Amino acid sequence: MTLPRQYRAVSQQVDGQAPGRTSLESVVESSRRRSAVSVLVVADDPSERLSLRSILAPLGHTIVEVGSGLEARRCVSRQDFAVILVDIRPPNLDGFELAAFIRSRAESELTPIIFVSTIDRAGHEMAVGYEMGAVDFVLVPIVPAALRAKVALFADLYAKSQELVAQALQLAAAAANSADALAFQLQMLDRMEQLGRAQSDFVSKISHELRSPLASVIGYVELLIDGQPGAEPSREQHRMLSIIERNSRRLLALIEDLLTMSRVEAGTFELEVGPVDLYDVIDRVRDTTSPAMTKAGLELVVDLGSDLKITGDRDQLERALLNLVSNSVKFTTAGGVIEIATRTEGDDIAVSVSDTGSGIPLDEQEQLFTRFFRATRSKEQQVPGTGLGLYIVKQIIELHGGVMRVESSPAGSAFIMLLPICGPPADPLALIRSR
After folding, report:
1. Cα 314 from chain centroid?
2. Is 60:68 a contact under the CB 8 Å cutoff?
3. What is the pTM of this model?
4. What sign for the dihedral angle of Cα 366, 368, 373, 378?
5. Strand pairing partners for 276?
6. CA-based end-to-end distance of the chain
7. Of the chain's two ends, which shows fewer C-beta atoms within 10 Å, N or C?
8. CA 37, CA 42: separation in Å to the nearest integer?
9. Burial readout 378-404 (b: 16 or more C-beta within 10 A, e: otherwise)
10. Winning range, highest mean pLDDT, from 21-25, 124-128, 377-381, 410-414
């Protein structure tokens, strides 16, 4: 996947590979050429605000500075910002609460949020921050050129979005002339696709860059837990290392979800198709979720039909089923039952995951498979998640030429994956693009 030059420049600078001055200057110059936009800087330390303002001043944008979460909320409620920069280092304000407020408003739910943190706190804060809606982190000491490039990139995307809105209004005015309106509409669609690809490429690149260091962190933590090198860790050290490993794996799973989402939307997510025995897939999922089932006090029931051999991508089907079972574990109280069942429906095999949880409100069921949607019960019970899991499950099943269904009542829920026995269509991505 080829990224635009400004994305590559930002990535190289973050990696410590100083790009040519021309690359970074082109990002900043491009930002200057566009009409000025507003950038919100939130930090309770006046010296930090001064430092951030000095770094961003060359971009030529309007810098709005506030020193508290309350002031930031007022600003966000009054006007739109191209990007919001939040210093979350102690004893600063709780940037995560501010991020939650920003994401709760329809007018600002897509506004990019960049957190400023320190390397010793980055692991924990990234795990929480990305769930709360952050798009990037900047670590202290700040590299001015890198921060300017990141902010310039988001400001540029915002300016382009504003241009699209203005041009959409022009389209409405030009609708009287059908020929002109059609040409303008095609032009808008093309520009929207270009912007969508740029955003998808950015998410994909950031996900790649985060995944490699995380894998290294997990590897070294595992060595420390095993007592290599040197002496065995104490009980308290072992507990702390286990927390680091658990949160690192959680963050890695989030990055994988973001990467999958960007590939689906860019049309580059492909299946590795071959013979699949659903018996084996279900058996592996049962083994993987068994510890969580035991800890939650749940019973797993498996009711399988005969001849469960299909054509598909074994790993992705296992991922989809594991996601559904893990969801049921999260929302089923102790003493409950989770069932994995299969049955044949014509030329398809239906794989269902049902539970005895509290069910899903009818008005939320249609939104379950949209990206970033989180049901009311997940918020009330403070269940961690990003709202990408069921979205990705739906994409995987539809790439196989199948259909996802949900049935729910106050007595529990059932998620059904309807999979064609013969395998995915010749161009499975066309099915998703046509929807």
Report:
1. 23
2. no
3. 0.49
4. positive
5. 310
6. 24
7. C
8. 17
9. beeeeeebbbbbbbbbbbbbbbbbbeb
10. 410-414
Q: Which residue has the higher pLDDT, 435 or 201?
A: 201
Task: Look at residue 107 and tell me whether its pLDDT is greater than 80.
Answer: yes
Enclosing H/E stretch for 420: strand 412-420
Q: Return the pLDDT at 103.
A: 84
Q: Which residue type is seen at 106?
A: A
Most confident of 150-154, 173-177, 383-387: 150-154
Residue type, 151: V
- Which pair of tokens denotes residue 220? 């070294």
Q: Which string of DSSP letters, residue by residue, matches 149-189?
A: HHHHHHHHHHHHHHHHHHHHHHHHHGGGSHHHHHHHHHHHH
Say how far apart CA 191 and CA 212 lie, in whole Å.
Answer: 32
Which amino acid appears at position 309 of this protein?
Answer: K
Cβ neighbors of 168 (< 8 A, separation 6 or more) are 188
CB environment 54-74: b (16+ within 10 A), e (fewer): ebbebbbbebbbbbebebbbe
Phi, psi of 341 (to 5 degrees): -135, 155
User: Domains in the chain, start-ordered, CATH in brackets?
Assistant: 5-156 (3.40.50.2300), 274-433 (3.30.565.10)
Q: Whose CA is closest to 147, among 258, 257, 46, 58?
A: 58
Please give the Cα distance from 157 to 36 (Å, whole number). Answer: 12
How many whole angstroms from its chain centre is CA 323? 15
4-33 per-position pLDDT tens digit: 333 333 333 343 444 444 444 454 454 444
Instruction: Show the CA angle centred on residue 130, arms to residues 266 and 355, nearest 5°.
Output: 85
Closest CA to 62 of 31, 34, 39: 39
Please give the single-letter amino acid code of residue 208. Answer: H
